[in-house]
Amino acid sequence: MGAEYDWVIRGGKIADGTGGDLIEGDVAIRDGRIAAIGEVNGSGTDEIDAKGKIVTPGFIDVHTHYDGQCIWAEELSPSSSHGVTTAVMGNCGVGFAPCRKADHDMLINVMEGVEDIPGVVMTEGLPWDWETFPEYLDTVAAGKRDIDVAAYLPHSPLRVYAMGERGAAREVATEDDLALMRRMTEEAMRAGAIGFATSRLSIHKTADGEAIPTFDTDIAELEAITRGMADAGAGTFQVVLDAFVGWDREYQVIERVIAASGRPATFTLASGNDAPPRWRRVLEMLERTNAQGGIANAQVMPRPIGLIAGLELTVHPFVLCPSWQKIAHLPIPEQVAAMRNPALRAALISEDFTPGHPFNELARNWRWLFPLDDPPDYAPPAHTSMAGQAAARGCTPQEVAYDRLLETEGRGLFLAALGNYENATLDSAHEMLRHPHCVPGLGDGGAHYGAICDASYSTYLLTQFVKGDGPLKLDLAEAVHMLGWKAAGAVGLHDRGTLRVGGRADLNVIDLDRLTLHLPQVVRDLPAGGRRLHQRATGYEATFVAGEAIRRFDESTGARPGQLIRGPGYRAAA
């Protein structure tokens, strides 16, 4: 008699994603669905001995930018390397559709500036065989990949498509413009978009240093566009608010959009490192919105928000010093040799930055610039910062950073903590994560290729908060709930994030005792030989998507079951 199931995972500790009690038992998979949970007597064509391991739903990464990578690559790493089985892209209102041929360069300029994706990568890696957003979704749907993706309609390309140069120049939309964007939004929801996304963040700039098309857009425009979601009866509103101008002003966007459209909203939330804890006021606003019948949630990074800096990356502590330009074109070994020259050392240590992209300044915020080694410490003690070490040594932070680069032959990395590290602890991140209206996110996979590698946050949450001890420890069931069902529900994906009989067979088998996060590495696998940061983990024994094992023992199996997930407003063509 043949096997009754495709796979049986035996004897694991099952965290089903609901936040309920763990159970020890088996999970059987058949035809892409979970066929049984508990004691499974039948055999599987393949079986996994999960004794001593945990079994979880596949994780939902609600904030990514795989809009390009999902077309030019089949593996959506780093996310798929860290237990993620569904990635939501199109966040922050940037993307590649709708787009007329004449506007390709403009969208590339926006994506290069906001998301640090080299222009040549997008030029060579994308076929640009679409114009409308539904056509873009069809291109995504036709591709092969390891995990599922869902997509927001992004505001910047929508605005430029509807308004032309006036949209790029941030002119006020006319009534006709608003009516067109509303119709196009309804069309996108009917084609399967899961919502509409925008950014109001002042430090989001184009590659030319200009404000992006959506910066400081009139709220009336957002109200009009999101009414297109109401027309379709589907969609979530995603926004990056400009906390720099104050939450009392910016949170009005959430309130007014929900009032106008009746649709759920999700936005980015972080704590400052040493500012007053304004995030608690935001949590109060969230509670008020939800108590009054609206639906809103905040996306919170489980570790410091910031950048990775290094000579091989987009930013480093000397990248905008005038003397650096003399050696910027050299290979790293030759840069290091030149840096050993006392005259160049004296110049670089004494020079200030010339003007540049705001992100570059983070690599000079000495109090919050830390060494990043293997294994990476994302919660480093305050005294290990460049400023802390300088105070102990009686020198300048510039000298500490310079010496680190020389001692590591130019390969040393730095963690520039922009936020979410209040008073050099993770207390604020922990408190926000546990709030009923917050979910983990902001991994930014598929973007910031030379500066950010936060798509590993799921692994970090498990290693830092579940495996760790002390007051910040999280229960395993609670952490898996955050990464699964809670995250999925926040963006309207209610068919995933849990383990239940009859449900999707998206799941992980994890050796929690061995689970380890490794130092980010530079790989050169982008179109045109572009480089990106990648981060590996050890301890993922298996990851399944739709019943197929896409990864075993921390390596890809080559399986490509991933699909485009069309949102609840989707209407298939007759």
UniProtKB/TrEMBL annotation:
Coiled coil: none annotated. SUPFAM superfamilies: Composite domain of metallo-dependent hydrolases, Metallo-dependent hydrolases. CDD domains: D-aminoacylase (cd01297). Pfam families: Amidohydro_3. Gene3D superfamilies: Metal-dependent hydrolases (3.20.20.140), Urease, subunit C, domain 1 (2.30.40.10). It comes from the Bacteria. Residues 47-548 form the Amidohydrolase domain. PANTHER family: COLLAPSIN RESPONSE MEDIATOR PROTEIN, HYDRANTOINASE/DIHYDROPYRIMIDINASE FAMILY MEMBER. This is Amidohydrolase family protein. It comes from Erythrobacter fulvus.
